Amino acid sequence: MKGGTLQINWHDTKPVLTLDFHPISGLLATAGADFDIKLWLIGSEEGDKKKVPSATYQNSLSYHGSAINAIRFAPSGELLASGADGGELILWKLHNTDSAHVWKVLKTLSFHRKDVLDLEWSTDGAFLISGSVDNSCIIWDVNKGSVHQILDGHFHYVQGVAWDPLNKYAASLSSDRTCRIYVKKPQSKAKGSERTDYVCQHVLAKVESQVVEETKAAKHHLFHDETLPSFFRRLSWSPDGSFLLVPAGSYKLSPTSEPVNTAYVMSRKDLSRPALMLPGASKAVVAVRFCPKAFGLRGLSTSSSFKLPYRLIFAVATLNSLYVYDTEGVEPIAVLAGLHYAAITDIAWSPTAKFLALSSQDGYCTLVEFENDELGIPVSFSGDKQVAADQNTMAVGNMASKEITEEIGKEKDIVNNASDTQEMETDKPREEPARPSLVTSTEKPNVKQASASTVSASKPAKRRITPMAID
């Protein structure tokens, strides 16, 4: 694993608020407070193991008149959705010519009254869900370019939305401290066709403490309130639909204990409550994202809280750091810290899982590159080896029944184990406060040359805690 923060002119030094990889070409799209979407070709120096990835500017998509908060490519790669301040929501279409690939505005989706903060496509690309500062989620019919359904149950900003890859559920996360799970249900027939709407099935807001004092059944909030210093709470489904990963968690082991920052794992078998928590981050978790690939089991761990015939990998971003987990172990396989001076805003995996990208309000992005087979051997979602995972043969896994009973205060500090947790650092120039990891880009010849990132054990301050099952 190698990588670092690319000190190039991403968006005129303005905050980079969102990014996403094209599912076919692997181009990286970024967007932010300069109102533009930019496309970058991400390159790798195969011959030099210490050389960090490069980003080469390709072109810009200019149409928005305000800051862009969310961009997501459709699964087919033919469309791109972008949501911005003021309720702007635009669909772009890819036009292939003999000489170039050109993105042009296809439709403007108008209904949100205030800023659009997050987006997600349905697996078939026929629908789009958006979350907004107007407290609502909207499901859009992409072909018609119109509103299919408005989900207005939240009482504060909707900062994250997610669509089940098996096309049965949708989810939203709000600063009203609730996560809502919607299930697809057929409605009455109209004009000879059956309409399908989403109905709120679960509202996750509070849970009983794991350690109950005396006989009081004390309940506490699962999530941070609106004072969380982030515009985003981006949640994510696993690519097989087995799990929903939810950020912005704030969990109390007992009524008198201090809340712990965490992300929750929810099993598809029971979406009414969290099944697992990933505690221990010093800052609030603001975004999570599953890797699109599945990998073969390594058989190295017997303490996994998941039961799957393959390994899934996911990234958890706090305001200032990134943790990478897999479903076969209980400890993070990598920890990246000290990369940015301002809040992390979004995470994206490349379609081949070779690159992991982060965006930040400090105006820069971080790229992490994984060596061939470093994450494992890619397999299909049935557990068979393959070159490219077949997303049409998804299988739903089961949560393990095993419970991890140690309390947080008794958990061992694993950050000194370099084989399990890693932190990327680079030498910093003395004359000015420099970024912890800087790399050069082929776009800007005058960019500072930075020393290559090195992998070392995490600092003791970055304390990691074993995931815990929640009763």
From TrEMBL:
Keyword Nucleus: yes
Residue stretches of biased makeup (Polar residues): 438-457
GO cellular component: CAF-1 complex; nucleus
Gene Ontology biological-process annotations: DNA recombination; DNA repair; DNA replication-dependent chromatin assembly; nucleosome assembly
Domain CAF1B/HIR1 beta-propeller: 1-375
Segments passing through the bilayer: none
The organism of origin for this protein: Artemisia annua (Sweet wormwood)
Cited Pfam families: Beta-prop_CAF1B_HIR1
Region named Disordered: 407-471
Listed name of the protein: CAF-1 p60 homolog
Biased composition (Basic and acidic residues): 425-434
PROSITE patterns membership: WD_REPEATS_1, WD_REPEATS_2, WD_REPEATS_REGION
Family stated for the protein in its record: Belongs to the WD repeat HIR1 family.
Alphabetical UniProt keywords: Chromatin regulator, DNA damage, DNA recombination, DNA repair, Nucleus, Repeat, Transcription, Transcription regulation, WD repeat
Localization: Nucleus
InterPro entries: Beta-prop_CAF1B_HIR1, PTHR15271, WD40/YVTN_repeat-like_dom_sf, WD40_repeat_CS, WD40_repeat_dom_sf, WD40_rpt
WD repeat start-end pairs: 16-40, 61-102, 109-150
